[in-house]
Automatic annotation (TrEMBL):
Catalytic activity: sn-glycerol 3-phosphate + NAD(+) = dihydroxyacetone phosphate + NADH + H(+); sn-glycerol 3-phosphate + NADP(+) = dihydroxyacetone phosphate + NADPH + H(+)
Pathway: Membrane lipid metabolism; glycerophospholipid metabolism
Active site (catalytic residues): 192 (proton acceptor)
Protein name: Glycerol-3-phosphate dehydrogenase [NAD(P)+]
Domain Glycerol-3-phosphate dehydrogenase NAD-dependent C-terminal: 181-321
GO biological process: carbohydrate metabolic process; glycerol-3-phosphate biosynthetic process; glycerol-3-phosphate catabolic process; glycerophospholipid metabolic process; phospholipid biosynthetic process
Primary role: Catalyzes the reduction of the glycolytic intermediate dihydroxyacetone phosphate (DHAP) to sn-glycerol 3-phosphate (G3P), the key precursor for phospholipid synthesis.
Keywords for this protein: Cytoplasm, Lipid biosynthesis, Lipid metabolism, NAD, NADP, Nucleotide-binding, Oxidoreductase, Phospholipid biosynthesis, Phospholipid metabolism
Binding site for sn-glycerol 3-phosphate: 106, 137, 139, 192, 245, 255-257
Occurrences of domain Glycerol-3-phosphate dehydrogenase NAD-dependent N-terminal (ranges): 3-159
Compartment annotation: Cytoplasm
Residues that bind NADPH: 11-12, 32, 49, 106, 141, 256, 280, 282
GO cellular component: cytosol
Length: 349
């Protein structure tokens, strides 16, 4: 049994804390709001974020960060991307030993284009950990919390750290693979949220399965294009944290990104939708980051660009679809084909 602190008591933090609790660990779930900790301790439910399950007695819910991180072997950061830097700064003030650092956050910082592990490294420095582990894959909190079979990847430059995360989380309903492509795993997990917003928009406009399949497939081509330019292994994008997560987020009604896109297409304003949902919709800020990053790097991302214009410039979703469909004629063959060829060649050898 190990003491593990989960930082962030939203839906995903709560679901991951439950997995760790099932595995017999001493789990401390930290929320920055004293009132939230009090409510969860009194009601044994996380009403605002994941009300369908009971918080077990064995799990400690606290708003005291120093108590939470004391004597831990691992910290699991499960926060919105914009809360990563401030919480790392708070952790730095109270952590006095080395731990395995794991994060389950899916986003890119729009101002710097940094991935989450890069932001964490900048804030925490290597005094407190060896290499960060990214836990990512097709995994809705609503299903993990009721023990539906789920598979994810634990990705790190350090095999020891990845294996530690795998050991902490893996059980017969939550299968964890290790993975070395941190860049590909983080970018796949973040960029798929933009395409999921697009899938929600497509459904909201009344389009069918053909349109959604096209969005997912051509969306993957865009993700791979930007991802490889940023140093990712292209094969990662046909794995769990690429196509796997893209499928689940674009097709599931659990997805907050899909839901936000769906409401947008039906005429809601972005601000009111985000306010009403009350949970983080990471694809919004990531669309801003990816749009500007792609522009800077000269990478063609027409779907991402259309979604950016809908989100931030009030473009009409229907007009964006028309624009995508009537672009210049071109062959389909591109890096997706090259990736698949490389993958099958690798399997044969
Ligand atoms: N929900 C899922 O199924 C799921 C699955 C995989 C990954 N993720 C990723 O996990 C991350 C967190 O998502 P979530 O679904 O748990 O979000 P959520 O909206 O359900 O909860 C966010 C939590 O962060 C807290 N928070 C917000 N700002 C904070 C701050 N400045 N300091 C401290 N705490 C703060 C909120 O109080 C809340 O407890 C996101 O990057 C998301 O993409 C979510
Ligand atoms: O609910 P979403 O859209 O934030 O997606 C949650 C997870 O990332 C799915 O793997």
């Amino acid at each position: 049994m190990e003491k593990v602190a989960v930082l962030g008591a939203g839906s995903w933090g709560t679901a991951l804390a439950l997995v760790l609790n099932d595995n017999g660990h001493d789990v401390w779930l930290w929320t920055h709001l004293e009132s939230h900790a009090k409510e969860m301790n009194e009601t044994h439910h996380n009403k605002a974020y994941l009300n369908n399950v009971e918080i077990p007695e064995a799990m400690t819910v606290t708003s005291d960060l120093a108590e939470a991180v004391k004597d831990t072997t691992a910290l699991v950061f499960v926060l919105p991307t914009k809360a990563i830097r401030p919480v790392c700064q708070q952790v730095k003030n109270v952590l006095d030993h080395k731990v395995t650092i794991i994060h389950g956050t899916k986003g890119i910082e729009p101002e710097t284009f940094k991935r989450v592990s890069e932001m964490m490294e900048e804030e925490l420095t290597h005094n407190y950990f060896d290499e960060i582990v990214v836990l990512s894959g097709p995994s809705h909190a609503e299903e993990v919390s009721i023990k539906q079979p789920t598979t994810v990847s634990a990705s790190s430059f350090s095999e020891t750290s990845a294996t530690h995360a795998q050991h902490l989380f893996m059980n017969d309903r939550f299968r964890v693979y290790t993975n070395k492509d941190v860049v590909g795993v983080e970018l796949g997990g973040s960029l798929k949220n933009i395409i999921a917003l697009g899938a929600g928009i497509s459904d909201g406009l009344g389009y069918g399965d053909n349109a959604k399949a096209a969005l997912v497939t051509r969306g993957l081509a865009e993700i791979a294009r930007l991802g490889t330019a940023m140093g990712a292994d292209p094969l990662t994008f046909i794995g769990l944290t690429g196509i796997g997560d893209l499928i689940v987020t674009s097709t599931s009604q659990h997805s907050r990104n899909w839901r936000a896109g769906n409401l947008l297409a039906k005429g809601g304003s972005l601000d009111s939708i985000l306010q009403e949902m009350g949970m983080v919709v990471e694809g919004v800020r990531t669309a801003k980051a990816a749009y500007h990053l792609a522009k800077e790097k000269g990478i063609d991302m027409p779907i991402t660009s259309g979604i950016y214009h809908i989100l931030f410039e009030g473009a009409d979703p229907q007009a964006m679809v028309d624009q995508l469909m009537t672009r210049q004629k071109r062959p389909e063959t591109d890096e997706i084909h090259e990736m698949l060829k490389a993958y099958y060649l690798k399997q044969e050898n």
